[in-house]
Amino acid sequence: MKKKFKCEVDCANCAAKMTEAVKKIDGVTDANVNFLTQKFTLEADDDRFDDILKQAVAACKKVEPDCVIEVK
Q: What are the pLDDT digits (tens) for 24-72?
């Protein structure tokens, strides 16, 4: 499953670090945090998507504590 989320990130370097951190999570097929468009794209296993999404948000918060990812 692939989904996009609105994401507030302050700099391109942080976005790159967040992307790398999320890609290391088990079950993630692909991930991208785009600073210019302020979008977070996550592609992961359908069965565990919600759990992986929670882990991804936590990983992003470790890189940049004030980042906001709108999960609906």
A: 999 999 999 999 999 999 999 999 999 999 999 999 999 999 999 999 8
Residue 9 has pLDDT above 90, yes or no: yes
Domains present along the chain, CATH in parentheses: 2-70 (3.30.70.100)
Alpha-carbon distances of 5 from 20, 34, 67, rounded to whole Å: 17, 11, 13
Q: 15-44 burial by CB neighbour count: b if 16+ within 10 A, else e?
A: bebbbebbeebeebeebbbebeeebbbbeb
**63 alpha-carbon distance from chain centroid:** 11
Question: Running DSSP on this structure, what letter comes out for residue 62?
Answer: H
Q: Of the candidates 40, 64, 63, which has an alpha carbon nearest to the alpha carbon of residue 52?
A: 40
pLDDT at 72: 80
